[in-house]
Amino acid sequence: MGQAGVLADLRHQTAKSGLFRRVDGFAYAARASSHWRGRLIPERDYPKTGYFKLTELSMRPRSRPAGDLGQMAQIETTELNRVEKRSVHRTQWTAQFAVASELCKRDYQVAFTMGNHPKVDLMVISPSGAKFAIDVKGLYKRNFWVVSTKDQLQDLFYILAFVPDYEPNQFFILSQEEVNREVPLHLDRVKAERLKKGLSIEKSDRFQGLLWSVAEKSKDRWDKLPK
């Protein structure tokens, strides 16, 4: 009774706002009526406002200088090794679609909330019919995972998706209980280190998240999700 289910919260919001439709008893995200022809996805992450033009998603061919094949191969290799700085919304959408793809390969049914729910990115039905929700976090370079604790929900999971340009994707699956346990432990370590250095801990809460080494322990743990 004390725990609120995230899917119940979704149902309440959808009934109130009419932003979702029902398909086989499960809510899916409907395209916002304000979407224009020729536009695809919102431009920012949360809240997702503005729009990203479909034409901007296309790959633009680059002109090649005249020269021998060795020179051109060297240019190609240099460009391949150059890591382009990504926008946050591009990485987040890449992560969400990558996670959804992996779930579909495992016979899960997946729907995107399209930013219409503050705590959830994906709504999922397992092969056996269990319903749950996923909060996706994305990175394209190895870094600190920015994750905040939330009030306990019965059916919420986290998938941290590493989606680099020229390496295989990696996925780290955690339950909400694990995140709510590990994030405070990290904050305690941060505060202890700052006190040791004689620094203030007044704004230490801004360091909420997980170290890469902590998340790595849950790599490919798809077995944590409902069957």
* Backbone shape: globular
What fraction of the residues are assigned to beta strands by DSSP? 15-25%
Q: How many helical stretches? A: 5
Low-confidence stretches: 14-62, 75-81
The total tally of domains equals 1
What share of the residues lie within helices?
25-40%
Order of helices and strands: HEEEEHHEEEEEHH
Under CATH at level 1, the class stands as Alpha Beta
Major beta sheet summary: 5 strands, mixed
What is the CATH third-level topology name? PvuII Endonuclease, Chain A
Total count of strands: 9
- Secondary-structure-based class equals alpha+beta
N- and C-termini, Cα separation: 24 Å
Mean pLDDT rating: 75
Strand order, main sheet: write it out. 5-6-7-8-9
- The name of the CATH architecture is 3-Layer(aba) Sandwich
Radius of gyration from the alpha-carbon trace, in angstroms: 21 Å
Element layout with pairings:
Elements: H1 6-17, E1 20-23, E2 26-29, E3 39-42, E4 51-53, H2 69-81, H3 88-105, E5 109-112, E6 122-125, E7 131-139, E8 156-162, E9 170-175, H4 176-196, H5 212-216
Parallel strand pairs: 7-8
Antiparallel strand pairs: 1-2, 3-4, 5-6, 6-7, 8-9
